[in-house]
Specification:
The structure holds three protein chains of three kinds. By secondary structure, chain A is an alpha+beta fold. Chain A has 14 helices and 21 strands. In chain A, the strands form five sheets. Chain A has a five-stranded mixed sheet. In chain A, helix 8 crosses helix 9. The longest helix of chain A has 25 residues. The radius of gyration of chain A is 22 Å and the shape is globular. Chain B is 74% helix and 0% strand. Chain B has two domains: 151 residues, no CATH class; 161 residues, no CATH class. The longest helix of chain B has 33 residues. By secondary structure, chain C is α+β, with helices and mostly antiparallel strands. Chain C is built from six helices and 14 strands. In chain C, strands 1, 2, 3, 4, 9, 13 and 14 form a seven-stranded antiparallel sheet that branches. A five-stranded antiparallel sheet of chain C has the order 5-11-10-8-12. Chain C has a two-stranded parallel ribbon with strand order 6-7. In chain C, helix 1 packs across helix 4. The chains are: A alpha+beta, B mainly alpha, C alpha+beta. Chains A and C meet through strand 6 and helix 10 of A and strand 1, strand 3 and strand 4 of C.
Chain lengths: 464, 312, 272
């Protein structure tokens, strides 16, 4: 937030003046109020492996993270390029695989990858879109310096926090929104619904019927599923509500079965269709893949999109972007060592104290090593794991991430953050100006995942 | 509207109603043991019976002491009708049908759950019982208030209301079923102390001891009490009142959907029989048989609604 | 050779089935070695939901049984003109990558005895080795109808030394993959020389060989497919290519009867 000379960076100027005039006790009271709003609303998530604390709140910090319009434009261009490349890559991988034939990525990357779904081969989803909703995790290291940490092209979550954080801020500090011209994020559900409807199957008659598929109330992101369905004004369905009838997937209503044209599913690929994938899955719909291949339903995101967002593919994103867009990637990748390559593995083992090591297929901050903050013993244990299964890991340097201020007991303090903007893809690409800012609450920590004690903030993109 | 959503709303409101009912039974039981301590275990046994949980209670406890019975009715997790179980189930259903509820209704349910969960986290001390029971009534009342104040009067509303009144009719009928014998002319001796106690207990279980006084000039008579709880169309917990509501809500559904199910027949017939008969007819037919038939019919209606509107 | 085929499958259930889905792979294509002259699939007691081409380019029909059905009958019939290509199907043609056919599946795991069997085949070149492999499997596993089921793995069948054509195909596939060759499962029809009424649909294997492309090997009969064979569907193993596979909701005790006739039409054509 501050320049080196301790003056606020331009986007923060107005906010900083406001903050300087605030009564601290009032802010602390507001902070409690925010927590109460979240608890009352039921904005909770479930942490796996903590049976006693089934529903937890994600800590909310009330100092917004502010991005200038100019910086955002640059970022948005880079994201759009990247998302278009991801979709082109998916189309290629499930058809001719030209990128492999051209020798730009190794065949093993796809061949050895469980996220590659043979059932998608030769299948072009309605509208030609594979990943309809993308969350691109980004970190900032300085003025106009952004790096992509990872692409989330399966079922990125967290967008409900983006919306609730904004809602809460507007309720608590309406005056801030008069003083600062903040670009809106509230229309996300509207945009999402229209984006989904725009890729309805060609045979769909009348207005496309959209529904959200959830694994149910025990899923960690259930709140978000219900929230999005509610805000879009569409049904929130479970597998048991759905059946293949007359060539379409239909939901059981109090008046009989009604067709669904576009299913925004928040159920993993493996559980989507017991007839095709895990036969024991009770969360899915038997035969939905048949209906899908016959072109009678749109599944968003398409099954098999995981092939483009795992961490091993990530290291090839610069090549992938260039291959499909013909231009250099506008957004940089964090330099990544693939431990499957012997020379890289050696480098990683030699420099473990300076690196972050992640599982190739991991998510949510589980199973990773943060070299600089890990103990000697932890690093030694991790080195053994690395040596045992090198291809399971990648490593990245710890970037000197920029920090943003958060409220702490004794005033404000700098903390590391990342940013997940949300992107909608249909016949066009729409990037919502803002996103989910996740913040590491521990001083010096680089881990922002909510499952590891991270918090969130409202994210402002200012108008010009 | 999804069949599962209709099912969720229906059961959410059944369980909220049941939670209130369990609290009311505890309230009446406490009152009895306070003023008529000589009743002892019999008092709590009949309370547990009215709640339909005497069997599972006896698997756990040897005798029906006040402290154990109250705890069992308020917070025992193996008792599906305890206040805590009911509120948990109601909230699970509310979470499932979250998109069908207004924000106010959902928040009222969620708050009720969070507050009662902490209030009932451990055994409630005798001294704190009035406050806790009061809180249960108030919190469930808030849900009802939020629901009535904010929900659109559409099919969602109708399924919720039907759930409430099917459950309420069941509760009232069960109370009558357990205590029917004290209302029989043969055994009831007008004015004896023991009957007054029993009658008062029945009326308290349905929060009707005051209103009864207004309607029947405070004269405790078995036939009047039966009339009040079964046939009086203005008493909000009577069987006639419940069926009036069930019937009108099913009527709305019929008009909206343009579809009539066997549930409509069952409901109309039950309402007719409640309207076109006197308490003398009921007594002549046999109170016990009458109530048993009613409970069976009420369950059947529940099943028919669930089939007709594709709950599963 | 002109073959006339009538394949009838009938399911009857002890109790009504509330909901059941079946995938039918019963439609042959015109392709190297066969020309479809006419073909029709009809379904009774079930409803066709959708038809599509799956990732192995098989024609799939999804049918549902709903309500109080106790019987479903599927009849696939038509005429196919076939040629003897000495088992050679030819180049790989679909989007599905060849390397996928080198993957293990649960039914075709390359266990030690599978690898040993594959390695022990001598011969001048891959083609000869595959012929020897086919003969070895034919020797090692006796054909015995009903001895194994749809869940039997290649390794189990090899251990027990008995099986049906499906097991011979699975063992062949597992062995071929263990020496690095792409291999696939083929389901189809075979006209046995001595009869018109066939006991069951047939299955064999194909391996992808350098220079030749896909070549068929029928280890159950120790021959490469000729003009008596009709290909219907392919896949990594039985599960991908089974003529009928499905899922039944409800405790339906099902009985399956299959009637299959494959007969030669117009003798003169086969001599051309």
């Amino acid at each position: 937030m501050m320049n080196a000379d301790n003056t606020p960076r331009p986007p923060y100027t107005t906010y900083n003046e406001w903050y300087a005039n605030q009564d601290r006790a009032r802010l602390i009271a507001k902070s409690k109020e925010a927590e109460n709003i979240f608890r009352k609303t039921g904005i909770t998530f479930a942490v796996y492996g903590h049976a006693d604390s089934a529903e937890k709140l994600i800590p909310f910090d009330l100092i917004p993270r502010i991005i200038s319009a100019r910086e955002w434009r640059r970022l948005a261009q880079g994201i759009e390029q990247r998302v278009l490349a991801l979709n082109a890559f998916l189309d290629d991988i499930y058809h001719k695989q030209e990128i492999i034939k051209a020798g730009r990525i190794p065949r093993e990357l796809i061949e050895k990858n469980d996220a590659f779904l043979p059932q998608m081969v030769g299948m072009r989803p309605p509208g030609g879109v594979y990943t309809h909703i993308v969350g691109t995790d980004i970190v900032r290291t300085g003025e106009d310096q952004f790096y992509v940490l990872e692409d989330n092209a399966r079922t990125p979550s967290g967008v409900s926090y983006m919306l609730e954080n904004r809602e809460t801020m507007m309720q608590m500090f309406p005056e801030l929104f008069y003083q600062n011209r903040v670009q809106p994020v509230e229309n996300y559900p509207y945009l999402l619904r229209h984006s989904l409807a725009a890729v309805a199957p060609p045979g769909c008659e009348g207005k496309p019927r959209v529904a959200v598929l959830t694994p149910g109330i025990y899923n960690s992101a259930y709140y978000e599923h219900a929230f999005l369905a509610d805000m879009m004004g569409v049904e929130l369905v479970e597998g048991s509500d759905l059946r293949v009838i007359d060539g379409k997937v239909r939901m059981r209503t109090t008046r009989g079965y009604e067709a669904i044209d576009v299913l925004y599913r928040r159920v993993d690929d493996d559980y989507l269709d017991p007839l095709t994938f895990k036969p024991e899955s009770a969360l899915g719909i038997p035969g939905i893949m048949d209906v899908y291949r016959a072109g009678n339903i749109t599944i968003a995101n398409a099954p098999g999109t995981g092939i483009c967002d795992d961490k091993a593919i990530y290291s090839y994103m610069p090549e992938i972007v260039e291959f499909y867009t013909g231009r250099k990637a506008l957004l940089e990748n964090v330099p990544t060592w693939r431990c499957s390559e012997p020379s890289s593995l050696q480098y990683v083992l030699d420099n473990l104290a300076d690196l972050v090591v992640k599982e190739v297929h991991g998510s949510g901050g589980y199973g990773m090593l943060v070299g600089p903050t890990a103990s000697k013993k932890e690093r030694a244990l991790f080195a053994d794991k690395l040596k045992a299964r090198p291809s399971n890991y990648i490593a990245q340097p710890t970037l000197s991430l920029s920090t943003v201020p958060i409220m702490v007991n004794k005033g404000i303090a700098p903390r590391h953050v990342d940013l997940r903007p949300y992107v909608l893809v249909s016949d066009k690409v729409q990037i919502i100006p803002g996103g989910l800012t996740r913040v590491a609450l521990k001083a010096g920590s680089l881990v922002v995942n909510s499952s590891q004690g991270g918090g969130t903030k409202d994210t402002w993109v200012l108008e010009d | 509207m999804l069949g599962r959503t209709a099912n969720g709303l229906y059961w959410m409101f059944r369980y909220i109603e049941r939670a209130e009912n369990s609290a009311r039974l505890v309230d009446a039981g406490l009152r009895m043991s306070l003023t008529r301590s000589h009743l002892g275990e019999d008092n709590w046994e009949s309370v547990l019976q009215s709640s339909g949980v005497i069997d599972i209670y006896e698997q756990r406890y040897e005798s029906a002491t006040s402290a154990d019975a109250v705890d069992f009715l308020l917070r025992e997790t193996t008792n599906p009708s305890s206040v805590l179980s009911c509120i948990e189930t109601a909230r699970s259903n509310a979470r499932m049908v979250r998109t069908a509820l207004t924000r106010e209704t959902w928040e009222a349910v969620n708050e009720c759950y969070l507050d009662l969960k902490s209030m009932l986290a451990r055994r409630v001390k005798a001294a704190d019982l009035p406050e806790v029971i009061d809180a249960i009534k108030r919190k469930t009342g808030l849900i009802r208030g939020a629901f009535h104040g904010t929900m659109l009067r559409n099919d969602l509303f109708n399924f919720s209301r039907i759930g409430t009144f099917i459950e309420r009719a069941d509760n009232t009928a069960r109370i009558l079923d357990v205590k029917y014998y004290v209302l029989l002319p043969a055994v009831s001796q007008v004015g004896t102390a023991i009957d007054n106690v029993q009658w008062e207990s029945i009326l308290r279980s349905v929060s009707a001891h005051r209103s009864y006084g207004w309607v029947y000039e405070a004269e405790y008579k078995a036939a009047n009490i039966a009339d009040f709880l079964i046939l009086n169309g203005r008493m909000p917990r009577s069987l006639a009142y419940c069926y009036d509501k069930i019937n009108s809500n099913l009527g709305y559904l019929e008009r909206e959907y343009g579809e009539r199910h066997s549930a409509h027949e069952t409901s109309v017939n039950t309402l007719k029989s409640l309207r076109n008969c006197s308490i003398k007819d009921v007594m002549d037919q046999g109170l016990h048989e009458y109530i048993e038939t009613f409970i069976t019919q009420n369950n059947r209606l529940s099943q028919e609604i669930s089939d007709g509107y594709r709950f599963y | 050779m002109r073959l006339k085929i009538t394949h009838t499958t009938e399911y009857s259930y002890a109790e009504p089935v509330s909901y059941s889905l079946q995938r039918l792979r019963l439609t042959p294509f015109t392709e190297p070695g066969q020309t479809v002259l006419n073909w029709e699939t009809s379904v009774e007691g079930a409803k066709v939901e959708v038809g599509y081409e799956d990732h192995f380019a098989n024609r799939v029909t999804l049918v549902s049984v709903m309500g109080d059905q106790i019987r479903m009958r599927i009849v696939a019939s038509g005429e196919i003109e076939t040629q003897d290509r000495a088992g050679v199907f030819g180049p790989h043609q679909s989007y599905i990558p060849l390397w996928l056919f080198q993957r293990d599946t649960p039914l075709t795991k390359r266990t030690k005895q599978i690898r040993d069997l594959a390695k022990s085949q001598s011969g001048d070149g891959v083609l000869a080795q595959m012929h020897n492999l086919m003969g070895a499997i034919h020797q090692a596993v006796a054909f015995e109808p009903g001895s194994t089921g749809t869940e039997t793995t290649a390794d189990e069948a090899l251990t027990r030394g008995i099986g049906v054509c499906q097991d011979h195909a699975h063992i062949f596939i597992a062995c071929a993959r263990s020496v690095g060759l792409p291999a696939r499962y083929v389901s189809g029809y075979l006209m046995m020389d001595d009869r018109i009424e066939q006991t069951a649909t047939h299955a064999w294997a194909e391996a992808h060989l350098p220079g030749l492309g896909w070549v068929g090997f029928d280890a159950a009969n120790d021959v490469c497919p000729d003009e008596r064979y009709v290909r219907i569907a392919t896949g990594l193993d039985y599960r991908d290519a089974a003529p009928i596979s499905g899922l039944v909701h409800g405790a339906a005790n099902e009985t399956l009867t299959v009637a299959l006739t494959v007969e030669q039409q117009g003798q003169s054509q086969s001599q051309s």
